[in-house]
Amino acid sequence: MKRRLRFLSLILAVLLTGCGYRFTAGYSAERFSLAKLQNATAEPRLADMFEEALLKAAGIRRRDGSPSLQVVLAEFSEVVQSVTSQGEPVRQEIYLTFEWRAESPSGGEDLSGRARVDRSYLWSPDPVTLDWNRRAALRLICEEAARGLSDRLAGIK
């Protein structure tokens, strides 16, 4: 029993110290504060949905502080993606292009980028169903764009 306890103590000591593994604080997009979010599209409520998605995906919110983040929702378009043989729409495709600029946390050069995200949704002749499908697709496209932006920002040192 004593021998076994000594052996387990030795194994535990090696495991905890021998490999050099330790917990460190990772980089997070949450350290950025949303200084500006501009909707340059004609789509209403798009900026609100995008701001909610940034908060959900990365914890980014409007607050004073540095480093700051600026986002412009530059383009939004919607097209019929596919039709039946009778010429009726089946799916709609939406596209969102956004531009961003982030202050470098280390005081270096500001970083910026431009990205385009797309999502399709089912078309319906029923206006209520079509509206519900479209709103769900708008929410999803904002969440996808926010996750992509969060991933880019999290890698900035």
Task: Describe the 3D structure.
By secondary structure, the protein is an alpha+beta fold. The chain has a single domain, classed as Lipoprotein like domain (Double Stranded RNA Binding Domain), CATH 3.30.160.150. 36% of the residues lie in helices and 31% in strands. The protein contains three helices and four strands, in the order H-E-H-E-E-E-H. It has a four-stranded mixed sheet with strand order 1-2-3-4, with helices on one face. Helix 2 packs across helix 3. The longest helix has 28 residues. The radius of gyration is 23 Å and the shape is flat. The termini are far apart. The model has no long low-confidence stretch (mean pLDDT 84).
List keywords for this structure.
3 helices, flat, 157 residues, Double Stranded RNA Binding Domain
Number of helices: 3
Low-confidence stretches: none
Neighbour order of strands in the largest sheet = 1-2-3-4
Query: What is the N-to-C succession of helices and strands?
Result: HEHEEEH
- Biggest sheet details: 4 strands, mixed
**CATH homologous superfamily name?**
Lipoprotein like domain
Relative helix content? 25-40%
CATH architectural group: 2-Layer Sandwich
